[in-house]
Design a protein that fits this description.
Structural class: alpha/beta
Radius of gyration: 16 Å
Shape: globular
Number of strands: 6
């Protein structure tokens, strides 16, 4: 049910309340276009939180709660997406998303610095004091409406992956 020209937003991992996935769902619901889709890959052991998220999703056919997938299958979802959003908290999925050429929208929190992954302006950072559904919506809308910016950020993510996340480059630096 996802169109070829739809903007596909990815999020996922170990879903915990502190990662604030509800902010992304609420931000997404502010976008009224049927050409924007949200894919959530991962799950939580907290049934109360999961039920809260499912209630927020309600019957919005644009939101796809996939659940757990194996380590290789997550790449299928990353490769199908256009942008990854992680409202709060670090995850290895940041690096995996960049490795598949995805720009990121990240909510920051004290003690976290994502600048090491933003060498080429492939990440839109939202400060902890600015983090809200409205702000996430604003960033997503800017990418949805500005295809050149989205393309530029995708190319920047690919460059970041090659320059900073390549096992070959890391091994070479280690040997030097």
């Amino acid at each position: 049910g996802i169109g070829v020209d739809d903007l596909i937003i990815f999020t996922g991992g170990k879903i915990k309340r502190k990662k604030k996935i509800e902010l992304l769902i609420n931000a997404f619901k502010l976008i009224k276009s049927t050409l924007v889709q949200l894919v959530i890959v991962g799950d939580t052991n907290n049934n109360v939180y999961k039920n809260e998220l499912l209630a927020l999703i309600a019957n919005d056919s644009r939101i796809h709660f996939i659940g757990w997938v194996d380590g290789l299958e997550v790449y299928d979802y990353l490769c199908a997406a256009d942008v990854a959003v992680f409202p709060y908290g670090q995850t290895v999925l940041w690096q995996q998303a960049i490795g598949t050429g995805l720009p990121l929208i990240l909510g920051q929190h004290p003690g976290q610095d994502a600048s090491y992954l933003n060498k080429n302006n492939n990440i839109l950072l939202i400060g902890a004091n600015e983090l809200s559904a409205e702000r996430i919506c604003k960033e997503l809308t800017s990418l949805y409406k500005n295809k050149e910016k989205l393309f530029s950020m995708k190319m920047a993510a690919k460059k970041t992956a090659i320059d900073f996340l390549s096992y070959e480059k890391i091994a070479q630096q280690t040997l030097e």
